[in-house]
Queue: 4 jobs
Job 1
Amino acid sequence: MGRIGLDVGSTTLKVVCVDGAGEVLYHEYLRHNADVAGTLRAVFGRMAGEFAGVRVRMAVTGSAGMGICERSGLPFVQEVVAACRVVEQKYPEAASLVDIGGEDAKMIFFAPGRTPDIRMNGSCAGGTGAFIDQMAVLLGVDVGELAGLADRAMRLHPIASRCGVFSKTDVQNLLARGAKREDIAASIFHAVSVQVLTTLSRGYYLKPKVVLSGGPFFYIEPLRRAFAEAAGLDESAFVLPDCANAIPAWGAALSVGEEQPARTFSELEELLERSNAKIGERKEGLLPPLFESKEAYGAWRQSKEKYRLPTAALRTAGEGPCYLGIDSGSTTTKLVLLNARREIVFRLYCRNAGDPLGAVTGAFEQLMRACQEVDVSLNIGGSCVTGYGEDLVRKAFGLHMGMVETLAHYAGASYFAPDVSFILDIGGQDMKAAFIDNGTISRLEINEACSSGCGSFIETFATGLGQPVEEFASAACSARMPSDLGTRCTVFMNSRVKQSLREGASRDDISAGLGYSVVRNCLHKVLKIKDFSVLGERVMVQGGTMRNPAVCRAFEIETGRDVIITDAPELMGAFGAALIARRESRVHRWASRPLAEVARVAPHSCRDGLCRGCHNQCTVTTFRFENGERYYAGNKCERIFSNAGEGRKVGANMSEWKYIETFAPIDRIDKEGVVLNEGEVGQIRASTSVLADGEGRKFAAERGSKAGVIGIPRVLGMYEHYPFWSTLFEGCGFGVELSAESSMRLGEMGAHTVMSDNICFPAKLAHGHVLDLAKRGVDRIFLPFVVHEEGGLDGADNSFNCPVVSGYSEVLRSTLGRAVERRIPLDAPSISFRDVELLERQCWRYVYGLRGEMAIPSRRVFRSVFSRAVARQNGWAGKLKEKNLAVAKGAIDDGRLLIMLASRPYHTDPLIQQKVGQIISEFGVDVVTEDLVRDTVLEKGLSESIHQWAYTNRIVAAARWAADAGDNVHYVQITSFGCGPDAYVVDEAMEVLQRAGKTATVL
């Protein structure tokens, strides 16, 4: 008599049969494509032939298994519990289990006499099998071929694995740079491994033996190797069971008790058939049908046919100059050719397979063949390229111009509706929305950190349910009871899909529900629209995703608008680019060129090199074309390698100036006031080895063997108070060691100790900085609990720090204990900068508490040092304001464009900021920071907010300054994903700018 475990997941079904000793006799793993009942019948049929006449007991696990148990009466085992059962019974020597599934990941730690410690991924599906599938599709291979590519890799590239949006951008960038596909494949597996470790280990280290579970580990050997390397273990530390792809099913089989009745396979099949009959009509979680009937759907399709792209035969193009538009997107390439009458004579839509130049070359070859077939010769009077590959394609083919996507899409929309008020473009992995006022784009929104609601998102679901995306989209239009699947991340929506499948929803209902989800995510999560009147009455939808009639119709139902959509919404960017080329050719009077000349890509060479302009040390790929053009890829900035050409003027960048000034050495501050030229910026590194003058230096010389070194991490509030603390401690005779400048390597060093995946990136980075100090061998690490900042702005309600800035030292203290080999104290005294007298007492209490371990100064010496530290802090703040005011005045007086770059102090970190300030200044634009409004009055005005956070008070004041300044002053705000206070501060800043007729750019 055997025992069977059945694991029914959202996309796969696993079954394991064990004998009395728990050894596996049979196991199977297959996709059910939403047909669980049919798949089970097939499996039981095969098992009945394998075990003829055998009676078995069965338990069920898995996300879709609970519904089966509720209807059939079979026992249910939670899948994590089932996995633990396997380890405890079959691998008692194991210290942990790591499982990567299709859409989730788990890490379980075992210790004798203790309950297993279970960790699971939460709000993001990054680092799972679904992520690997998406990356394989992006490279145009299946997962098996992806593994084969990784086996031949020579190097790794940094790839973000948290979300498909970021990872696809990284992969596309690498492909555009000519990176080897083998290296990209290996980098994908490395990224998955790092993601799993950093999000699930949370302060623990994996120790042998480690049991690996899940389909990705079972089928992909390069993933196992990458995970072992990322975990710092050799492959002998891991155990891969023969049925690692079905561990929960095995655990369910081991969990079957003797009290369960034994049944034949035919009896089990009959039981499950009866349970399926119990699925009643769903009454909850339903949405209105997209169409009431087939007739209604047909009438709707007919109503949309009035907006058709103008077309003509290709032979008519020989009558005059033609105009070329190319949209080189992240996953697809679109080409449109217009004749002199603005009619499309040729159009093409194709996947670029990660090779934008190859895709455009292939498109030109098809165009040339089409011309030969009708015996016509074409001359190109104007050409324009837009999209992701704009610069590369323009230089490679010598095209006349490039144009940002937004304006290209607007040009296409205005052809059909000159009075268009709103444009929504949903592509494969991005979403753009433009609000138009009086023919001008007044507001632009794009999706930030989540790809749900984009084309690849729907394509992934269609693939998971075993249906081509075209059929999946059409099926939605006949759904009677669309499922309410929620919005936002794939993880949450997958949960709703599982629930719907469990309740008997059809694929039609799920497809229709996804149409609603795409639209709701766009309207409520990305655009945050509360009143649809802001869309206006003339709404146009564009992008390949809008070819899905369910998405288009759901948008109409949700907004109450009759939208404009053409017969080829995916071509609107290329069509707009062609219209722009036609318009600009008449302005610039470009000379026409034969198509054969335009279509010939300039021979080129690629060479990788290391940029040593700063600590990022980017790997820069240089494309050298025989037509004399050069294109640089991989550089995070254009200070050294620029695609803008020679002779460009660079504007002032006060964000970078502030970063350098904050961490400059004391002797340089005292003697030179920290006025750095551009050459020095890339060379100077923060150092605090020089002691302050006067009594502090005299005391330091006498400190002898009890001299101590205090480590200060370059994180969070230290970007506001490092001048004070470095002056204070060195004046007291202590050595001060500053952590290294931020880098991805430093971030990864501490990533596994981060306890919350949703904490902001600046906080996550703090773990690496503390570990860096620990490796340097400092005696103590100092990160105070700063409750209040200086009073700052008059009119503010308070000057609190946010809880993360003030209290994160406690988190670091609790999570890094095991990581720091020597027990180095992490000191976090309570500090308030709002009251100078209180601050002096608090600082003396801390310094006095170090007696016995370090030589400390007398109280008299301390008072003198403290006064100097306060003076330096005030001088630093005053100098920042003075310098910002001078830059702003110069730009405003001269009528030059000026950007207020508002952020928190730690956003000046080049890694956190991603050099936004430098990128803006390289356009010749001056950049000032929110330090310009230090010590000003915060007028509450129309605001209903309580202004109690010091940093955000400054941001709001900066927004009001930008709103009141001239038309040449604009506002850009940097925010970290997961920042709590910014949930309202961003909205308030946007409202302030809108009232002044300006827009706020939020990055």
Job 2
Amino acid sequence: MDTVSSEQLEEIIGRLTTLERKLDWVAKRISRDGYPLDSAARPQPRPAPVASPPARPITTRTSSSSPAAAPAVQQPRTPALATYPPSKPVLKAPSTPSQKAPTAVAPSGATSAADSDPFAMRPMREKRNEGNIGRYVLSGAAAFLIVSAAVSLIALVWDQIPDVVKVTALGVVAVSLVAAGTVVNQKRERLQVAAATLTGTGGALGFVAVIGAALIAGLSPVAALGLMVAWAFVLLLVSCVTAQFFTAVISMLGALVTVGFTTWQVATHPEQAVLAWTLIDIYTVTLAVVAAILPRFTPRMRLAPWLPTTSMVVTGTVLLAGPSRLLVAQPLTGIVLLAAPCAVLLAQAHHSTRLLAGAGAREAAGYEWAVTGIIQALALLILASANDVTSSTRNGMAMSFLVLVCLATAALLPQRATSPWLRVVAAVNLGTVVCVAAAVFALNIALLPPAVAAVALAAVPVVRVGYSAPVLVLPLFSTAALLAVFSPDRSTVMLAILAVLIGVLPTAPLEALLAPPPHSEEHANRPSWLSAGMWVAAGQLVLIIPRLLDRLVPAGGLGGAGRIAAPLLAGALALALAGMGAFTPQCSPRMLVSGRRAGQLAGATDLRSPLVPTPPALAWLGEALLTALAVAVLVRADSLGSPLLAAPLVALALALVVVGGRMLLPWLRHSAMSLTVTLTIALSQSLALWWSVMILTGASAASLLITGVVLATGAACIVIGFRLRATTLRHYGLTLVLLVVFKLAVVDLAGQNSLSRILALMVAGVVCFGLSLAYNHFAQEQEQAEHGAIGADSAGGISPAGRGGSSYPR
């Protein structure tokens, strides 16, 4: 007994000695590396080492009473990397300093090896985020494996376990796990991931237990739905108490399971569809309210602003999973039940995006609003395009969604234009409204006017924050009215015309509401957006409205006068727009309506003073478009078969070609392209004149009347060419005269009698003689004028502009 006691005592003494040795070692390391300020052992800077004889080694005498001797105290030295103390005392041999390689003393602030590691310089936040991702991924994997194990265990002994026991045991386990996770979260701050795993696993098992009770234990569907809703709210509250967003995600997944269970129940028992979807709508509203309130009471949760987003996922799923059979069985009740989640989702979007924008996640707020609009458009197409849904029910469903979108847009109007949240969501809201309006238009083309009106309303907040794109988007969206030409219903065509007017008329007021550009890119692109919007609006006025009017007015109505209404309207609008300055650079809708560009020409101050050496692209475009429109008008006039009805169209066509030629007139003499400009103007107007005469008189192109008109045209070109000193125009007129002479001598006279031949030759000869005299007279006048101008120039130095030369800057 004494022997045993003495052995234990010796063991205890040995352990105490070892512990003392370790404490001494730690103390020495602290005294060497730490160097307290008040410590006398703090080393002082030593001078450079000098040659000295080797020091005698210090011998340590070991006491016989102690099992081991303490290590000898050495002089302070340069700090080095710490090593774990040896388990036994080791006598270190004294080192002899080298005379040739003196040891340098490292400063106390020397950089350690860990500091030189590049990965150590990574921001702590990035490391923490990476760690959180790994923890929660593994936590989710653990929850999945545990749930899978539970399911596998139940499947293994499924038949031997009573149903009530199965469900009760699973429910007890779920509640226990959630309670344990909550306790661990409150008591152990370092076990947050484990606590989240416990609560998440328990939450998932709770939903499995409720579904199992409904499937095998005879629980009624309504009771099962109530239990799942209650359990989801419990998990949501637990996530706020524990400040764990992971539990809120589990609650969201459980809510999705609840929605899926309800959808299955409605498909299995259609007679319970109204009751089931009423309950699910109430659940959606309640969940949205709770998720909106909880962020105010969870200051510890870093992701608290994202709590409403979890409920928005549930609301969007409810909206997409709505049973369309409700619209067939009870249309009015079905519209209310299926449109209610849309209203809830829009309200959630307003609240959630504000929270995200306030938390610094503005980009995420924009994406969230965009996804909301896409879900609404898809839900509308899915629900309203189902089989057996009547057209009135479809229209009612579409208008319900459109009204809700307009209300959500109207809520943006009172906001300040400088609000950061409004700057984020205004432009995105315009895109979502366009999506919903396109879905409405796809369901029924007759609903295009309210759809365009919704887009116009959504454009107002965007221009208030300084973006000019809506000035183009609005008229561009209303171009869908062109599809109404294929509709046999006249009322649809009238509604399409109304939609075009709704899309075109607000463009100038929208430009007037424009705020200053929010950034340099918008400032640079604004003239392009406004000019493009003006062109699209003008195109709708000149092309789409006359085309719809032509489809609306019967061809045989009013004694055939209905066929001239559309071309007259198109030509008159084109002349008005050209006169107001539509073909001037960077002309916006507001400039066009205000008349500030009226009468102006692109690239010229007036008809004789070009500002650039060659005609700009807008001048060529205006001449081409107006000439093409004149050709279309003459084609319609030629098809009427009545000179009386064709006369207004002929006059309009001639006016169009004259106005088109006016855009190129400043470069008739003062340009290197005067040949091209002159031929373009002369050919377009000559052909329009000859065709007009043929339409009004019914004469053919080879008749003597048209030959005489061509001869008169050539004579006029010669005279005008001399007056304007346009050599190309004179040559063009001379060419026409020679062609007429050739035609009279070779073609026309071959089929006439002798008297007609004599008269034709005599008249042609007299005309040519008169033209010869006139040509000679004008040529002499021009030669004298040029000689006089040269003499005056040498005497007084007349400028080129005074001689009729170019006035544009060289």
Job 3
Amino acid sequence: MGIDRAASLRRGAAWRLAVAGATAWLAAAPPPAAAQGRSWCGEITSNTVWREADRPHILTCDVVVRNSTLVIQPGAQVLMNAGTSLIVKAGAALQAPGNPQARQTVQFLPNDREITPGFWGQILVEAGAGESVLNDVSVRGGGHGDKPMVELHSPVALNQMSFQSALGVPLALRADVVGPSLEIPGPQPGACTAMTFSRNGADGIRVLSGLTGDGDIVTTQSWYNLCVPYLVPAGLRIGGPDAPILTLNQGVVVKFGPGSALIAGIDDANRGQLDLSGGSEPGKEVVLTGMTDTPGAWPGMDLTEFVDPDGLGHSFINARVQHGGQGGRPMVRIRTPLITAADSVFAHAAGYPVEIIPDAVDGLVSGLNASGGDAFVQNGVQRIRVDASAEADVTISANWKNPGLAGKPVPFEIDGDLTVAGPTRAATLQVQAGVELVFKDGAELVVGDAALGRGGLETKGTAREPVVMTSLSDRPGTWKGVRLTDAALTAQLTGLRLENGGQGGRAMLEWGRVAGLMTESTLTGATGYPVSIALSNVPAIIGEEQQDPARRNAYTGNGTDRILVRADAPYTDKLARWADPGVPVEFTDTAVVAKATGIALTLSPGLELWFPAGKAFQVGDRNARAAVVFEGEAGRPLRLRPVDPAAGWGGVRVIAGASLDARHVEITGAADDAANVTVDGGVLSLHDGWRIDGGGRGTGVDAFGASARLDLSGGTVTGHRVGIRTRDGARLDISRSVVGGNTEWGIRNEDPALCQLAKLVYWGRPGGPTDPSDAEEGCMNTAWEGGGDKVSDHVNWWPYATDDATFPPAPGLGPNAARVFVPVAANAAPLR
């Protein structure tokens, strides 16, 4: 073996010298006239040292290092002839340890009198090379043929490097060696002085990727800010058998080329994780962007579900992702709940800035704009797209916050049915003030699923910042709405604005047998009913909270502005109050209020209950008791009526063992074959401002059974065929009331064993009732032609009232005075 050595310039001749221990031949070539030293050309196959004393070392052609180590001593100078390169092959190594303390920098320079960019080729360290070092090295004037001036496919310990006057990029590294090659200068406070780049065609570090079918980053590593961007023209895939983590530290800028996407986590066998760890100071954020500052300059990034399940997952800490969305895709796609974000920004996407699975939303938005900054800036679509394509979407409890600013929300666009159901533990979706959920047309929000698991829903809106749920089209009836199934755990809805639902004829909010409460909410734009709810849970939306105007819900602009109650089971709350929700409450069937151990229910002023044909409001049931109070007020009565006045309804029923106590109530419109109030062995007490009106048909009050009791005062029975009917032991005591305008009978008692009491009743005429019978029945025993409603035998109707304003008694003692109750109420106080 031998090495060609250049002769002196005076002789201009070459000579050959064998070097002991050498395993490579180097072909010598004469240096330029001004240069002295040693010339190299060809292969180095044995360990070789380029000494400072022999400077300059001149590459007259490519020098290839094979299976050996080339050491370049501190202070050595390497001159590169035009187009030449230094190539280190697999199994070889390059060590150029300069000495910055002694100012003995290793220099690679073009062998011309000017530092001409692109004069020479490159320093290339190929994959599989041994431990290599470039420390205190200055490299200038390379990059011929648009090659990177320094290109590393194996780890090379870089430090105190200066890159100048490259034709293109000065430095390129295979993706997986970026971190290992820069781990010495990177963490240093003066990293940007330890690695300097100036006057290059493109001041940046090119990241070489896509070279194999495997991941580009297969080992855990960190990239540091060297004050130039990392340039990724061919995409970046993070993933390998050891689940590598790529950490981008404060100030790092990564620029991606067209078609170049970042993927963290490749498949189940090649998991990976991305950690963006920027700083809060200006210029310290991590930036991922395109090569050009235009929306859609690069595709974006995919943070997949293939992360280490025992790790922390992907993170955005003081990060900025911008100018993505090439080809119409979302700029960032997140497919795992293992995600953390704080004070990060998504900006200038061509379309959607983010697409995310529902279970990841909490992790993304919980701290996204913790410092009050705007997290979404000038994107083509200023919404977060939520991929709701799974059977169960929210499977773990989550807290969704407004990812935008107060008063400037960034909506979540839900692209399908969103199901909240925890397979192992109930999942509750909590939605904070200012959040807007915009659902794809035809979609719905489902809480709880019998097969998939239990779920809950909580909204925490305010008057200024409601939680909004609406459709993408923003037109009435274009999505289904919210469905709280019987498998839901709870629903606590405050400050919700629910809009534009009811597609397909359903109620916009369907509330099953679910504990909970809705207050301070607005339901609008439904094509039909804004809400339907199971009778068992009706206090959730007409409970006592609705008495407070500040907490009352609002229903406006709906196809049917009524609350629909599905009366498919008895109401059994032991103690409850129903309050006026501001719109009528319509029942699908007979509403039974009863429980074996008894219940107490109070209905507050202004409440209006509507019933379909043949259906009733029933107090008590066989072997079940109830005590109900209708607590109306003057000017705000309770009202019970039919949905369809022409068809009527079944009226109010009070069953044996139950009682109804009412004030200021209007009960109207029972069907012709029904009574507005049926007392089947129960107790009915009506006082002060009540009105029972048949509209020309049916019976007002029908009482029967030995335990039936009627205590009526201060009200009106009118517009029926029969005003009040008693039979089979039912007892009646009515006073200071109006029984008038009933076409067949005012009061008809069919039990001859009882004498019913009707004192100071105004019968529709000043002259009193019409009693057609003077039968000796032991009660009145006289006929009377007063012109008012008819009264049957076995009714004591004296004294009657002569008007309905003050109910003054008729003068005198009346007929059969000796046998009737003495009119002690001759000076009765006015009722109104």
Job 4
Amino acid sequence: MNDKADADKWVMKQGPKYKQRYRKEWEECPAFRGWLAPVAENACIAFCKNCKITFTAKLSDIRSHSTSRKHQKAMQGQLPRKRMSTVLRLQGIESLDVSNIVSLYREIARVPEARDAFVHLGQDGQSLTVHTLWEVRDVEQGEQALFCRHHLGLFDEQNKLSFQAVGHPQECSSEILTAFSQSGSYKAVLRKVTKKGETKQMMEFWDQNMKLDSVDLEAVNAHGKVHESGTFSSFSWSNSENQLLYVAEKKQPKRASYFCRTEKEEVEKGTEFLHRDSWGECHMEHYQPVLCTINVYSSAINVLDNMPEDISPGQAVWAPEDVGVLFVGWEGHPWKSRLYYYEFETNSYATIGDTNKSICSPRFSPDGNTLVYLQSEFGGPHFQACQLVKCCWETKQTLIIIDRINTPVGNEFPGLYLNALPQNCFTGDGNTVVLSTCWHSKWEVIGVNLNFGSITKLSKDETVGCWQVLTVKENFIVACISALNSTPHVVVGTFTETNDVRSWTAIEPDDNKVSGISWYILQFSPPDESNMIFEATLVTPKNETDLPLIVWPHGGPHSSFHAGFQLYPILFVKCGFAVLLVNYRGSRGFGEDNLKSLVGKIGQQDVFDVQCAAEVAAQRDEINPDKMIIFGGSHGGFLACHAIGQFPSFYRACAVRNPVVDLSSMDGTDIPDWRCVESGVIQDYSTSCVPEPKDLEQMWNKSPMKFVKNVRVPTLFLLGKNDVRVPMTQGMKFYKTLLAQGVSSQMYTYDDNHALSKVNVEADMFVNIVLWFKRFMN
């Protein structure tokens, strides 16, 4: 049967009045019978039984789908193509060349990852719509692309939830920030628009049918550039859904020379070359943030610029009944973050909570009665454990719900290790907060009962290496999950009255497994610390032997590797390498005593742990102990440079990204406290601290440069020209010393910052790294 021809004949018989109608018309068309079904909850949606997707039930859309390649294959009994096809199979490292490395990179780099989600509940209580925002590398254009997807969730008679895709993915890369109002009736978008080579920021407001307004923020000229991401960024609808709260740079006078002839008031002469301190790495254009509100109906912008000049506000949310705003304020000297409440009527500010702690992520319960936020110790090592604090908004009384855990027992809950709470983290009754936290070498989902302080682990699938909560709506939890052999996919869980999740349902039926990869978490107990452990995740090609091993310690040093989908480890394995991701003592997710045990011992304890893990892994049957490689970035590069200096005959090759090599000369970094605290020189750091000569000697003794004369390992350096975290001079110093010693070395420099995460940079680096490793495996 020719579906399109039969459908066209049938439509012509019915006359023009039927062409845009739903259900009754297409149900009577013989060409659509058997594979097309109605969706009871929405007369405008149809469901294809063969392709398992939904779409708008217009006759034109149905005809278009019926002739699609995907539908034709499904009608013939063929399954639709999975997101991850069988990836390029290589016959060992010897076969690697630029062309097949590039082909492999293209294949794996196109895997998207969910970044955000919004849930809209149906009025009948039997359906929900899940909107998800995804990010994917566009290697051709050298940028991250964004797209959104929509899925309809339906409950069957047994109350089992299933999902159907609605339409196709839609690119939304120009949408920098997006926020839905609480009811789901309105959507706000900060859009990037390029005209005549100039980029502008436009604020847009939409209802469910059309665009309501579009505001050119540059033309209004009420403030500087809106903060698009990072520490300060906010984008929040008011409870009344008539205003939007966001963060932008404070409007500044135009900088000009003393000799400028203009007399305009907006020009400030003599400031052309005046230095202004920014907020550092990833915030180089952020100097003085201000809170702003825009009225949806009048487009009037109000800048809340009457706060103290030494406070930089961010992470702002509306107070209940929109009587004020709550925000985190950062002081410039010292770098301390406090929680502030600004009340509109009295034009006054007040602090909330403990002013001696660093506070972030304020979140209100749906009824506005309860505020929660994260707080941690001020000073000391970065990424310490957080406390979850509950605040009764009426009385402003606070209570610590989850405290730090110094020494967890075995694999029990180690404490809270996360950078921020989900924007929507409360269940419908306001009694439970749902969040993701680092738990040893994984990220897990937990539910925290605010009334009893009880913690329930909601992620119970051991094959998953990383769970990230995207949003919570009533009793529905949306999360993105993945593993080192499974691509990111979105699941929805239903939270029950017993403080648990009944089941997790994937919104897509695709098989997300990445073929040919195995991973294991190895646990170590150092002999000198009986109550502490550390872990390393071994990732290998399945059923392969004689594998070269890439030992990879993380940066930080107080961060960690998770066992979720990661581009480089998976690519390395597909190229024929095994990878060892080392979470040495000092990594987050293992308790506070473990994390702080590294302070004052960098260059010793962490080097010992990495080498211990490497030597144990080298004894495994699938690993060739004569083909050991080490790789790392930042503090991981620090450890790699230490390893090739302290164990020069153990490794065959090395590659480092923006490594720290000499603590004593690490001037100019945007985190000057780091070297003082981690080397054990100064614990109570302040910006007025100046290291003494004995302090600099102690820093030198903990640095890789102390051992550089021992290095014989060929080393590749990958450096960012715009790195203000670890100045490029650090890596160049080690590189030039190795060249002078006759050690094979090579250096690539990129127009990027510390993370070296630009799409084109990331791609070029990988090819260079693999070719370097291959060169010295022979």
